[in-house]
Design a protein that fits this description.
single chain; 250 residues; mainly alpha; Rna Polymerase Sigma Factor, Chain: A; Arc Repressor Mutant, subunit A; 13 helices; disordered N terminus; disordered C terminus
Length: 250
Amino acid sequence: MAPKRPLQGYPSLADRPDELVAANVDLVQRIAHHLAARLPPSVQLDDLVQSGMVGLIEAARQFQAGQGATFATYATIRIRGAMIDELRRADWTPRSVHRNTRRIAAAIREVETREGRTASDAEVAAELEIGLADYHAMLQDSASANVLGIEDLGGPEMEADRWLAGTEDSPPEQLAQAQFRLALAQALGGLPERERLVMNLYYNEALNLREIGAVLGITESRVSQIRSQALHRLRSRLSDWTGEGSESLL
């Protein structure tokens, strides 16, 4: 029988992977529910849990106590990574959405380069040669593709993964990571006030879209559009890092 209180990271369980798995099943459920809240209804919670359990089992088999981290920390990386890998393999996002995400980022980059300031919704829509309502609809569609978001830019989890595995980046890689983090911080700081606030509430305060809407006095769908546009804007401003055709932001 599994213990009533999960023993995440308890060193004496490190050589008993079955008990580590049994003690941390709830961790898979929590991560799956958190990720599912950011995905379209077509993605089934059970599928996320199933792939997350694979990640948990692999984590239990590979975990080595004494590396400076609890099992829960190590397992969280493996579980979430397994879920993201499964989503990528499934590729449930329509090609048209991928195409539009690139178009939006390119339009934002074009307007901001030309005008030397932050592009407004109306200016981006005009650059795309569509109406403002159609542009907002594109943002809403692409919001469903925002599985990863800014936490996957620059590979913070990859850094943690290498650290937990007892390996380190080479000095050039460490410098590149530091430079990217600086560029990302500057790009976030340069977002329009409302976009910056939404990103802070979503990523730092861990509020969901409905809760953010209540704070700002706007609809949940509008919050989704604002977050989507912020991610597109970041993608356009970090294109030198993410690659012209990269989907890493979305």
